[in-house]
Amino acid sequence: MCCPDCRNLIRPILSTEILIDEHYSVVVHAASAYEYPLKALVRAQQWSDYTATVSLGRLIWDHSILRHISFDYLVPLPDLTRSLATGSSYNPSLVIATEISRLSGKPVSSCLQRAKKSSTTTRLSDSKNQAFTYVKGEVDLQGKILVIIDDLMITGSTIHTAGNTLREARPKKIVSLVGCRVL
Question: How big, in percent rounded to 5, are the helix, strand and coil portions of the chain?
Answer without folding.
Answer: 35, 25, 40
